[in-house]
Every structure is written in structure tokens, then in C-alpha cells.
């Protein structure tokens, strides 16, 4: 199990400009930890999508960026939170083939 080395930042997600700040901060944190370009791109893409979902579907919120270590390897933990309504039926939402919308996403 990873152990937290400390919370680096709590960033608000309330506007499109905040999405830019989240991406910049996550990119910088990943680079400082020595992530290669491919891994930086992967974590940045995930952070960007989660931040946008927090804003659009959760009505805004925040992300906590933490450095973690596990088995001597450093990493990032990104914890997104919002005040949205949540998922009414989590079991159904996690079942194969279920979709809650008409977009191109998986669910």
C-alpha cells in the first residue's frame, strides 16, 4: 500500500481557468518526480479528464495532489472531490453495458 509523503497542493476546480492550473500543476509535479514523457502524458490526460468531469458533472470541487511512495518508488496520488449528486445506483452503473447518457464515453 502506498504511503503519503505529503500533500503538495489542494487546487480548486471552479472554472475553465482552474482546469488549466490543474494541468500545469500535475505536469510539473510529475516531471519533478522523474516521470518519463509517456507517463507524464498519461497522468496529465487522466487529471485533465477528471478535473473537467469535476467541473461539468460535479458542479466544481477540488483536487488534492500528494506525493506517495510504495516499495521505494515515488508516485502521485490525485484525489478529486466535488459536491455533485453522485451516482444513484452504483451497482447498476458498474455493470457491463450500462450507460447513463448518449455521449461517446463508456458510461
Automatic annotation (TrEMBL):
Residues 83-107 are annotated as: Disordered. Residues 39-106 form the Histidine kinase/HSP90-like ATPase domain. It holds the Pfam family HATPase_c. Gene3D superfamilies: Histidine kinase-like ATPase, C-terminal domain. This is Anti-sigma B factor RsbT.
Amino acid at each position: 500500500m502506498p504511503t503519503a509523503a505529503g500533500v503538495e497542493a489542494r487546487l480548486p476546480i471552479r472554472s475553465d481557468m482552474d482546469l488549466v492550473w490543474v494541468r500545469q500543476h500535475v505536469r510539473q509535479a510529475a516531471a519533478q518526480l522523474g516521470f518519463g514523457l509517456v507517463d507524464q502524458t498519461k497522468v496529465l490526460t487522466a487529471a485533465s479528464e477528471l478535473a473537467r468531469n469535476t467541473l461539468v458533472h460535479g458542479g466544481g470541487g477540488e483536487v488534492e495532489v500528494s506525493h506517495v511512495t510504495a516499495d521505494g518508488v515515488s508516485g502521485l496520488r490525485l484525489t478529486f472531490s466535488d459536491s455533485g449528486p453522485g451516482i444513484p445506483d452504483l451497482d447498476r452503473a458498474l455493470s457491463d453495458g450500462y450507460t447513463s447518457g448518449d455521449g461517446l464515453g463508456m458510461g
